[in-house]
Amino acid sequence: MEDKSSEYQQRLARLDSLREAGINPYPNDFKPGSNCSSIVEGFKDSSKEELEAKNETVSIAGRVMALRDFGKASFMHVQDRSGRIQAYIKKDIIGEGAYGLFKKLDMGDIVGIEGRLFRTKTNELTIEAQWLKLLAKGLHPLPEKWHGLTDVEARYRQRYLDLMVNPEVRDVFLRRTAIVRLIREFLTSREFIEVETPMLQPIPGGAAAKPFKTYHNALGMELYMRIAPELYLKRLVIAGLERVFEINRNFRNEGISTQHNPEFTMLEFYQAYATFEDLMDLTEEMISSLAVKVCGSPRVQYQGTTIDFTPPWQRITVKDAILKYSNAAEEIFVDRAKALEYSKEIGLAIPEGLSHGKIITGIFEGVAEHQFIQPAFVTHYPLDVSPLSRKNERDPSLVDRFELLVMGKEIANAFSELNDPVDQRQRFVDQLKERDAGDQEAHEMDEDYVRALEYGMPPTAGEGIGIDRLVMILTDSPSIRDVILFPQLRK
């Protein structure tokens, strides 16, 4: 919709006057010699007298974030990707023509400035402009108060403005970038190789989730946006790439909340000749080192709570967690009817036809999951909810699996991988029965994956870590939308 506001019209008129004066309001012939933060950092210890003696000349480019006009002299703050610096504009120095251009500038315009450094009476490092050029005219005013709760959704929809005027938001995404980079460095230093696997898949697998469906016209076939890269990464382990990882998007056709976005970023990695217990050690080391490098300490503040990532973290089984945080009797773990009865006693809406293991998992999520504020590995989940996990040697009704919980939320999921092709095929068959019974998130049969297993997969452990949730914790962000540049929203 066209903007008819008076401010917009005034800026449009100034744009026309610039063109009429022969000034290109959108040139592409200026290259800054430096950025704001490097200038501020490089000369932070230089006194007024030292700057005068050096007669240092710099050039920058950025957006005008503040203007103070004093007639024949003015100040403005210019912001680039690195930060802000003040510029001093004086008619006697830059000349009448350039000063006339300056008088037509608005907040939000992008300019190029060249000049010498000095300190003002208040000791602020400042560029005394000797040359000024308009690089891009802004036609909309910058928002003055972008922090109000009433503007939260507008901030997400117009993230470019949010990043432009809120330095703390920009810092969150710079830290997100650092977190992903550090994860890559951590894994590659341990001989993992980074790979890419299909996002369009003929069979959605690797997780219990409802996929997005699409159609490929040329092939004449339905395809699915991947819900997980797991089965393809394990094919690569079978192929001999014994340590692999991928950081990329998954897509799940589920609800939106402070913890869920239908498009999200996952790290998945697989290591041959390792167990889920090995991955607990690796995860402790990786995330605790991330906390130190990103936050300066293994103790991180999250929404008023101190989370201590110092290893070792608590390790507890699903069964022991339920017994610890509820009045459940041990008989619920061997008697499905007792488990269903107890789930009703504590007010859980669990369907009658659900398997014993899924009932137990539902009870755990209802009574215990939210109790784990500090990092904790919850281990040995029921086989029924882990169709790709290796059975526990001592109790085959359980699997060698853990979830990492922080603030009562799942951050990571890992297990010793099932590499018995006969067992895997039967579990896929069992999952098909559950799909027929109405479970839309149950796995489909993947014949090619079973065939790959039949060639032999070494004993392997694999893990998935939700990058968005991890970034939330390490940046003290209350919602997943605060750590995704362009979160999904209603129209």
CATH class descriptor of the largest domain = Alpha Beta
CATH architecture assignment of the largest domain: 2-Layer Sandwich
Q: Helix amount, in percent?
A: 25-40%
Strand arrangement, major sheet: 6-10-11-18-17-16-15-14
Share of β-strand residues: 15-25%
**Domain count:** 2
* CATH T-level fold name of the largest domain: BirA Bifunctional Protein, domain 2
Describe this structure in words.
With 491 residues, the chain is α+β, with helices and mostly antiparallel strands. The chain folds into 2 domains: 131 residues, Beta Barrel (OB fold (Dihydrolipoamide Acetyltransferase, E2P)); 277 residues, Bira Bifunctional Protein, Domain 2 (BirA Bifunctional Protein, domain 2, 2-Layer Sandwich). Helix content is 34%, strand content 24%. α11 crosses α13 and α12 packs parallel to α13. The longest helix is centred in the middle third of the chain and has 22 residues. The mean pLDDT is 93.
Write the layout of secondary structure elements.
Blueprint: H1 6-20, H2 36-42, H3 48-54, E1 57-69, E2 73-80, E3 83-90, H4 91-94, H5 96-102, E4 110-119, E5 125-136, H6 152-157, H7 159-165, H8 167-188, E6 193-194, E7 200-201, E8 213-216, E9 221-225, H9 230-238, E10 243-251, E11 263-272, H10 276-295, E12 299-302, E13 305-308, E14 314-317, H11 318-325, H12 336-345, H13 356-367, E15 376-379, E16 401-406, E17 409-416, H14 421-436, H15 447-454, E18 460-466, H16 467-475
Parallel strand pairs: 3-5, 6-10, 14-15
Antiparallel strand pairs: 1-2, 1-4, 2-3, 4-5, 7-9, 8-9, 10-11, 11-18, 12-13, 15-16, 16-17, 17-18
